[in-house]
Structure formats: C-alpha cells, structure tokens
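F.,

This is the one I mentioned.
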C-alpha cells in the first residue's frame, strides 16, 4: 500500500518538480557517501617497487657476507609477497624463511624473540599460531603500522638477521 502511495504522489507532482527532487536526493546521497568515506582509516601497504627495493638491499648484503640465502617478504596477514631461493640454498630454507617472516609480521617482533622465549624455558610458546623460534625474521613497521615481515634463511642466524635488516634499512631511505 505504501509503495502505491509514493508512486501516486510522485505522479501527482508537477512535471518540472520531479527532476529537481531527484537532483536534490542524489546530491544529498553523494554528500553522505563522501563524508563517510572520509572517516575510513588509511592503510599503508607494501607495493611491488618497495618490495624490490628491500630485496635488492638484502641481496647486496648477502653478497657482501658471501652467503646464499632464501629471502621472503610477507604482508601483515602472512601472505607471501616475495620468495627467492638461490640455487645453492638448502630446500628447507624455503619453509624456514617463510616461518620467520610470518612470525615477525604476526607478533610485530623479531623472530629472535621467539628463540629467546624458548631458550628461557617457555616451550608452551611453540604451540602459538605462526610462532617460530629462529633468528632472521624482522617485522616491517612504518609509522607504527605493521606492513609485514622480511626474513632470510640459509646462513648463520645472526647473518640471516643482518641480511633482513639491510632490507628494512632500504625501506627507511
């Protein structure tokens, strides 16, 4: 019944008034949508150019250290953005580098912190999601916002972290 009334009311309007009302309604709607969109938070993310810049710096550090390591970058949800394994890097580094990077992204902390947690006797932490106690993964944080994690695997743990740090340093330049 209400629908018929609205349609009947619109039909009874003067012909030149209907376009004016439609224009007014669309203007109000556009204003409402625009003002609501302005309230949405802005989110930083890792674009391809940034990922390539970070990887280039990490590769350069690996060459300086004379090691071949698997390099990984993940986004804040742990999704793989980049993975590279040189020919001479062991196959297990594919998984370890990803686990280190995911740990760093999920916990917003270096994966070395997980290793220290286990060394200090908290073995229950091994059951935490995406928890990985291996040094070499670092969180990618910009303006207090987590963007993901970067990791290297294949050399001594300290060297892995140094290589990942080179990628982070490139982001800050």
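My design for it:
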């Amino acid at each position: 019944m209400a629908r018929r009334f609205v349609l009947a009311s619109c039909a009874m309007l003067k012909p030149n008034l209907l376009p004016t009302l439609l224009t007014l309604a669309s203007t109000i709607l556009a204003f409402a949508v625009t003002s609501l969109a302005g309230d949405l938070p802005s989110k930083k993310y890792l674009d391809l150019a940034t990922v390539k810049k970070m990887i280039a710096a990490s590769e350069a550090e690996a060459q300086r250290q004379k090691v071949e390591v698997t390099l990984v970058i993940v986004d804040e949800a742990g999704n793989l953005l980049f993975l590279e394994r040189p020919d001479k890097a062991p196959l297990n580094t594919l998984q370890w580098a990803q686990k280190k990077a995911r740990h760093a992204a999920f916990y917003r902390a270096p994966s070395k912190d997980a290793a220290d947690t286990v060394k200090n006797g908290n073995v229950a932490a091994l059951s935490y999601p995406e928890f990985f106690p291996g040094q070499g993964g670092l969180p990618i944080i910009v303006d207090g916002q987590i963007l993901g994690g970067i990791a290297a695997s294949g050399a001594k743990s300290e060297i892995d972290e140094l290589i990942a740090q080179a990628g982070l340093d490139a982001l800050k330049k």
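Residues 95 and 160 are 14 Å apart (CA to CA).

Talk soon.
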